[in-house]
Amino acid sequence: MKPIYFKRYRMELDLRRYRPPAALPPGFEWVPWHDSLLSAHADTKYQCFHQEMDAAVFPCLGYPAGCRELMAAIITRWGFCPQATWLVASPDGYAGTVQGIIDDQGHGGIQNLGVVAEHRGRGVGKTLLLKALDGFAAVGVRRTFLEVTAHNEPAVRMYRDLGFRSYRTVYRQIHPPVPADDAHLEPLGAVGLGL
Ligand SMILES: CC(C)(COP(=O)(O)OP(=O)(O)OC[C@H]1O[C@@H](n2cnc3c(N)ncnc32)[C@H](O)[C@@H]1OP(=O)(O)O)[C@@H](O)C(=O)NCCC(=O)NCCS
Question: How many percent of the chain have pLDDT more than 90?
């Protein structure tokens, strides 16, 4: 089976250039990290990602148990940054999630920023990202980075609008579990680089 390659940008931002988060929409609230929230983050991550192209790049994002394993791996990693890890609560459940990890160079990595589909387009994603950057700045981080799939236009545009710039292009390889010409992989073929 031929692997599929997804083009991704590593984007970075000097934290001296970030701005503080705006207010959330009325009725929405910040929920800071607490150990009891692992499942809430994981379930929200699943809601945000399971129908998105990143679930093809990172298959664990496509099913609830995979999201829980990913969350467990993030929070037990050296460098996990609770200050950059947030949920957004809406009147009808969690609306967004983000986690932060500080690498061995002291740079802050944004992990899995996501907003549940019915709450998109209202500024929640941008505000959530700024909240995570605020958390990194509060613990002395000077530079942040993230990786984004090149064809994820809303996300790439949001990061650029907030000052992130692309410093490197990487190709993430996945091995499709079914033939690459199966119907459900067709849209992914368009965003991946079949080599
Ligand atoms: C990317 C994502 C987090 C944006 O969340 P959101 O709450 O809809 O974003 P916002 O309303 O705060 O919009 C922020 C900016 O994103 C960009 N944007 C949002 N939706 C867009 C769309 N449909 N098309 C193009 N740009 C879009 C715009 O630049 C927008 O700024 P503007 O409103 O000033 O034009 C959301 O689409 C999402 O969760 N996607 C699925 C998960 C994902 O791919 N996460 C990114 C992983 S790297």
Answer: 83
